[in-house]
Amino acid sequence: MHIKGNFVFFSILAFLFNTGLIYSRQVENDDLVPFGLTVETIRNPQFTKIVDSNPEFSWVVPSKAVVQRAYQVLVASDRQKMNENVGDWWDSGRVENSQSVNISMTGKPLNPNTVYFWKVRIWDHQNNATDYSEVQEFRTGNFSEKLTSQNWFQVERIKPVVFRKTPDGTYFADFGKDAFATIELKYKTAKPETLKIRLGEKLLDGKIDRNPGGTIRYSEIELQVEPGQTKYQLQLVPDQRNTGPAAVALPDSFPVLTPFRYAEIECSADLKVEDVTQVAYFNYFDNNTSSFNSSDTILNQVWEMCKYSQKATSFAGVYIDGDRERIPYEADAYLNQLSHYSVDNEYAMARRTIEYFMEHPTWPTEWQLHVALLFYQDYLYTGNTELIEKYYEPLKHKTLMELEVEPGLISTKSPKLNGGFMAKLGFADTTQRVRDIVDWPPAQKDTGWKLPKDWQQGERDGFEFMPVNTVINSFYFRNMEIMAEFAAILGKAEEEKDFRSRAETAKKAINEKLLNKEGGFYTDGIGTNHGSVHANMLPLAFGIVPDEYKRKVAAYIKTRGMGCSVYGAQFLLEAVYNGGDEDYALGLMTATHDRSWYNMIKAGSTIAMEAWDMRYKPNSDWNHAWGAAPANIVPRYLWGIQPATPGFATVRIFPQMSTLQNSSITVPTIRGIIAGDFRRIDNKTEEYNLTIPANMKGEFVFKTEKTEKIWLNGKPVETKSGKLELLPGSNKIEIKRL
Predict the structure, then answer these.
(1) Statement: the pTM of the whole predicted model exceeds 0.90
(2) What is the CATH number of domain 646-737?
């Protein structure tokens, strides 16, 4: 995927953005006007090009309005008309509707390569009209078959947090965090000179590790400096592996980038800290939309590292696997999407990646089954149905429903897995075949890798591959559930009925043929009695396990430990929380052994690593966002903040705080920021303060069997239902436990 464009004013935009002169109003103010305007979910769309001729507009309803009763959108061809409240291109008139997201422009389509202006006003809960919002400018580009516009890129110029001259005369710079970047250098010389510059991600004995192993990056470059020139940008050498035909190409105005945190410079002149700059490239990212803090300092560090991983790896404009290949993979992207949506309300990057996969599939069987999951999370978080409407038919193939070998169960041993089917999946090379993967990496036999003797099975927990296996079919069941909902959205009643029937049949078949009821665990497949953590965490994560077996399966999962990779950990944590064991889940996220997120921090990485430790995947890298599951698990499960209805019209909040004594969080949504504060007053009493954005409803869920009394805003409420209705604004909840 080539991303073309002229980004010569990146530096200016980054300065304005970072100084607050350009910003998206994420935080509520005292005005009774809509704010947080977006076009195609993109904030500040004047710096990109909208590729939809009938775009969709969204805004955040101010808290004083409480609920939106109606709205009016104006779109104008010039700023003067907009200032005069004239929507010469589109005037929606007063629309009696509470919808504040995904408002489709009707009437005449926009022209390509044209500048437009828009604003909105609403009528509040008392039916009073607000003032119009600020005017937002946006630009169109060339319209194409793709639905999703590219968000704009940011460039940050970062100064060292540590800068010193070493005893051997070399200058050492630590920029604090790893980033995909290059170096700018201010340097004066009276005669030609060759500087030697080293860049790296890892230290060894206080110096950059020149042989860091795996795909941990190290570069050594010579820079020619001349009299009369004082400013230089390092010209890095492209890596053939991650800049070849299969890799995602960067915009043509980008320099060559490499991930690094540290720099060493050998030169004759004196250098000061202000002379050395890390020039880092990112997709649009607003760091202020999310935050997390708690009484557990390890969890705080883990979450911050995982959050930064979303920003640091965004430089390609679509989700990629890391620096080794720079290729999008469906499973990587799904984990990326979950975490990205949890730490910033930026949706364009995920939507572009989804469209990319419809034409560029990858080989693992399960990766195809992640595509529907990508579509579904986008629908849940944005409420937008455009991708579903466009790709519904080809998405059916990616569910692999055509590979059913018996009622409810699919297999890659099906004779229908042929070249014709591979073409339906989008493969140009139809001689390829999808292959079951379960987890990655597999056992590394005959590779020369020196793995620890206690981990020769790789990251699959000894999984025994059978023609019909539990992992594949758990994903298949979830795909059928999702497709039933998509069919309902599109008004395809017969197809909805068929998909729901397929989902029910799949669940029944899995529980009848793959659940060892006596042992209380799922086997890896038909024909084996081995039960890996993978074969059990996925049924529990996806809601397949019958109620009477949930505790047994959850207990069995605990006997396997962290028997999966950083990818599998996403589903392991979801399963454990679904099984009600919040203590074990918190323990997994705060562990300090070598199969933990804290181990990545101890190793010196500031971006999630591809594997738990280099000993488990000796060719792994230090910049792989699929290893950052806590970025979404903390808000979605520990705090339990998830959309109950598409587009966050209703939010469900089901906290599982385990032993935490206190915690605070802000979670971005398309309708505004949800804020929460928790503290444990004593062994039996908890207090939550939750702020719900305007035009959103809330549902607070609690465990009734552990609750004696509960108060909402100072008033006692019934505890038998296990649910409280939350209104926009502040909600104080006090819970007394048994």
Answers:
(1) yes
(2) 2.60.420.10
